Amino acid sequence: MAIRESGEWLFCNARVRYEDDSRTLEACDPYGCSTIEVRTPLVILPAPPILRPFTITQVVYIDFARRVFLERGSSIWAAVPLDIEIIKKGRSIARLATSKAKYRLVGSLTEGVIARNAPSPVAWRPEDIGGECSARVRIKVDKGADAVEGIPFNAAGASIYRDKHDELYLSLVTASISPLLIDTRTTRDPPLPGLEPVRGPPYGQHGRVMSLTQTAVSVERGWRLWPYLKSAG
Question: CA 46, CA 55: separation in Å to the nearest integer?
């Protein structure tokens, strides 16, 4: 959405306020507020939930509400929260979290990856998942079969799309499941036909994701070895 005049906008736990007379933008989220003197027009865009309180990781772990059996050829839907960015002339001038982040170690202590934890129910149809300040994610299994507790994926490599109802989607994630590993790849493909692109990676200069070349994540199946890390902030 575009900001062209004074107003206030709420995105779950994030708030954006602009005063045209003073040319002042105030951007607040659970981690604090920042004030910037800037002229309109400004653009507010959704972003993967890896930007606040700062970019700790590029990986999001979809933590299923219950274990789900996935096999080759199956597809499931989940929902992940979104961050937002305020853009001026192609530059990110403010980044906001719509919810407070928790992080976890996915995999073993030596070979695991830190991931933003995203609890989600499981759905077999996109219309059965989603909500305010979140994006739908489709996970398609290309190889293997097993009951899993969650799926990690590289969110920094995801594009964002929307449908005719302005519901948001991340690009398709493919998964390969074995007894020891889960391999996922974040594609640039829309999860459904007919979706309109909103934005693609990379997401600005300040998140240090400009050099992203790999969209794959491979982790050991040792998720119970480590509890949630303390909430950031």
Answer: 16
